[in-house]
Design brief:
Blueprint: H1 12-39, H2 42-64, H3 70-87, H4 92-99, H5 101-107, H6 113-133, H7 137-143
Length: 144
């Protein structure tokens, strides 16, 4: 999920690379989530999946908006995760989940307050990784 820290000055090749890395990170995140479900059970699987859900959303945010700073991308992913969780206080996700596996995977079905914390963990981890991978504009210009 690399990107230039000064988004206004990000050259097109950096944005393309950012999107490519974000797409690859999304695929890896889904793989890690599926692997976690295959080898872990109980709270490790559940809450690890919650954190990875937000990491996946962060990668998708970066894919769509590569100029966002890591903190803004993480905040957007966290807000979306929380919105989905709070939507579970209504009957809508549960009803959709009964009819669609995809809806169940994306929306869940029941509200669980501890999930809110694990979304923060995922957003923080994703933000740290994104920040570590984001090149500065000066570094990009030096390598060009």
């Amino acid at each position: 999920m690399p990107r230039c820290r000064d988004s206004a000055a990000a050259p097109a090749p950096v944005l393309r690379r950012t999107r490519l890395v974000a797409a690859a990170a999304a695929v890896v995140t889904v793989g890690v989530g599926l692997g976690l479900r295959a080898v872990a059970t109980g709270s490790t699987s559940k809450y690890g999946g919650d954190a990875l859900y937000t990491v996946l959303l962060l990668t998708l945010v970066v894919l769509v908006a590569p100029r966002l700073t890591p903190l803004r991308a993480a905040g957007t992913a966290l807000a979306a995760s929380w919105a989905v969780e709070f939507l579970q206080l209504t009957a809508v996700p549960a009803e959709l989940s009964r009819h669609s596996t995809v809806a169940r995977l994306i929306l869940g079905s029941t509200f669980n307050a501890p999930d809110l914390f694990w979304y923060v963990v995922g957003a923080a981890a994703g933000c740290l990784l994104h920040t570590a991978l984001a090149p500065s504009v000066a570094a990009v210009r030096r390598s060009a």
